[in-house]
Amino acid sequence: MKTQQIVLASRPIGTPTLTNFRFEDVVLPEMNDDEIQLNTLYLSVDPYMRGRMNDAKSYTPPFEVDKPIEGAGVAKVTASKSEKFNVGDYVYGRLPWRIHTVGASKEFIKIDVSVAPLSYYLGILGMTGLTAYFGLMDIGKPKAGETVVVSGAAGAVGLMVGQIAKIMGCRVVGITGSDQKVKLLKEEFKFDEVINYKTTQHLEKSIERSCPDGVDIYFDNVGGVISDAVIRNINFHGRIPLCGQISLYNSSTEPYGPRLQPILLTRSVLLQGFIINDFQSHFPEAMQQLITWVKEKRLINSETIIQGFNQLPVAFLGLFEGQNTGKMVVEL
Amino acid sequence: MKTQQIVLASRPIGTPTLTNFRFEDVVLPEMNDDEIQLNTLYLSVDPYMRGRMNDAKSYTPPFEVDKPIEGAGVAKVTASKSEKFNVGDYVYGRLPWRIHTVGASKEFIKIDVSVAPLSYYLGILGMTGLTAYFGLMDIGKPKAGETVVVSGAAGAVGLMVGQIAKIMGCRVVGITGSDQKVKLLKEEFKFDEVINYKTTQHLEKSIERSCPDGVDIYFDNVGGVISDAVIRNINFHGRIPLCGQISLYNSSTEPYGPRLQPILLTRSVLLQGFIINDFQSHFPEAMQQLITWVKEKRLINSETIIQGFNQLPVAFLGLFEGQNTGKMVVEL
C-alpha cells in the first residue's frame, strides 16, 4: 500500500522554514503479528518538537534527518493482526507524519469515543491537559486565593492552566501576544487579568499592577524576557513549574539574560522542570479528573484545527508566531 | 556600662571596604525584666550578610546605616533578670557586633557546653550545619551512589555538605579556589575529586571528567560561571539546592549569563532556593543527627578563627576572597 509522509529534510538553524520538511511517497510494510494498520485522522503539532529537530540530548531523542517527523496523533484502525484492536477502533499514540501507517499494537491506546470528540485526545484530554494538570497541581500546588501567572496563556497548555487555576480558586493573570487573545481569555475563559506583552510599556510593572499581592505561582511556557519580568514579581515561597521556553527554541546562539538565581534564593522559590512522563503513575486519576471537569463544563476545550495533511509544516511553523489559540491540531 | 560596637557606616556599592564600617563607643542601657546582659565571645561572619548591607527586600531586613551590624554569636551571661538564664550560662543567638550587650532572654538559646566547643554552635552545630543538612537532605535527597557536586567546597557550608554527602554514600566532587584547599578537601575530608576553578583550563569539561555519570545533585553556594558549568552537566531529574550566590553578591550591576532554563526543563531538574527557617519545625531532629555524627567523628569541624573584635570587618571582607577554610568565626 502506498502512502505519503513528511520527513525532516534538514535540521533548522534558528527559526525553521518549509525547506526543512520534505514530502515523500512511501510503500507501507506488510503487517506482522500484533501490529495494526492505521488511517491517521489528527496529528498534533507542539512547540517541544522544535527541540527534537536539533541534534541535542533531551528527554526525547532527536528526529533523524530523512526520517518522518513524529508526534501525538489519533487514528482509525483499518486492519488488525492484534487481539487488542478491531477494525474501526480509534486509537491514540505516537504517530509518524504519514497518512497511513503500520505500528505495534502495544504502542497505542484505545479511545472511548463516547467521552469526547477525537481531537480532545490531543488537547484537553491528552498530553496538553496532563501537562497543565501535573505542572500546576503537583508542582505549583495552588491554594485558593493565591495568584497564578501563566505565560503563553492562549496556547494549548496555558489555556488549560488558567482554567484549572480558576477551578482551584486562584486569581489568574495571563500573558499573551494579541488584543484579540486578551479579550478571549478575559471573556470566555474568565482570566482575572490579561497582559498583552507586545503592547505593554513596561512588562514588569504591568505584572506588579495586575498582581497586587505578588505572584505565588508562575507557570512558565515561554522563558526569556517575559519570564524575567514575572520572576522579579515572585513571592516568598513562590513556585515555578517550568513547562516550556518557546521564546528561546529558535535561538541560533545561546540566549543570555539576567541571572535570576539571587531572587530565587532570597525568596525560597521552587523552580521545577518537568515532562509529563515524570508523573506517569498518576495518569489515570488525572485523566479522570480532567474528564469530570470537561463533563461539568468547568474546562472548555479550545483548539485551532488546520485542515489537510499537507498543512502540517505550516501549522507547526505557526506555533512560533502565536497563530493558534488553544491546541493546534491538523485534521487529515 | 560602656562598650564598643561596629555600625554600618554606609552601604557598599560593589565590593565592601573597611570604610563601610565604623567603630563606636556606646553606653549599654539598663536591663529590664526578662533581659540578660551578655559578654560576647564569638561572632559569625557569613556571606549572606552582604545582602543585608543593600537596601533591598530579602528574607531578612536590610541592616540600617549607623546601626550595629548583627549576626549569629555565642555569649556568656554576665547578669540576668530572667528566670531562664543564670550568670555564667553560655547562649547562642543573634547578636549585634558589640563587645557587651543587653537582650531579651527569649531571643537566646542555652548551649550545653559538654557537647562541643562553643564555636561549633556557629558552624557545624549552628546555622551552617543546619543549612548544609536541610539543603542536601531535604532538597537534594541524596541516594547512595549518586554524584554530588558542591561549589564553595572549602567554605563553611560546602565542607559540611561534602561530608554529609559522603556519609550518605555519594560520590562527592568539590569546586574550590586554591590548590591548598584541593589538597585539604581530598586528604582530610575525603572528597572523591576536587577542582580548582581558578587553574582549570575548561571548567565544564573538568566537571564532566570528574563526574563520569553526570551530576545528580548540585549544591550551589556560589552562582555565576561556576554554576553555569556544573548545570551543563546536570543529569535528568537532577536537584539543585540553591544556598548561596557569593560570586554575585558584590556585583554593582545586574549580573548576566546564559539562560539555563532550557536545560532545567529538558532534564526535569529541580532548583530550590531556601533558607533554614523554611525547615524550622525539623531543627531538633537535624541537630540531634548532626551531634551524633560529630560524636561518631563522621563530621569533622573546620573553622578559621580570627582573633579580636576589631578584626570583624577584615574577617567579613576575607570571605569574598576565599580566605577562610570552613566556618569563619571571630573570637572576641
Number of strands of chain A: 16
- Quaternary form: homodimer
Largest sheet of chain A: 7 strands, mixed
Distance between the termini of chain A: 18 Å
Task: Write down the overall mean pLDDT of chain A.
Answer: 95
Tally of separate helices of chain A: 9
Low-confidence spans of chain A: pLDDT under 50, at least 5 residues? Answer: none
Largest interface: A-B, 35 and 35 residues
Proportion of beta-strand residues of chain A: 25-35%
- The percent of residues in helical segments of chain A reads 10-25%
Order of helices and strands of chain A: EEEHEEEEHEHEHEHEHEEHEHEHE
Could you please describe the fold and organization of this structure?
By secondary structure, the first copy, chain A, is an alpha/beta fold. Chain A has 9 helices and 16 strands. In chain A, strands 3, 4, 5, 6, 7, 15 and 16 form a 7-stranded mixed sheet that branches. The first copy, chain A, has a 6-stranded parallel sheet with strand order 10-9-8-11-12-14, with helices on both faces. In chain A, β8, α3 and β9 form a beta-alpha-beta unit. The interface between A and B is medium-sized, with 35 and 35 residues. β13 of chain A pairs antiparallel with β13 of chain B, so a sheet runs across the interface.
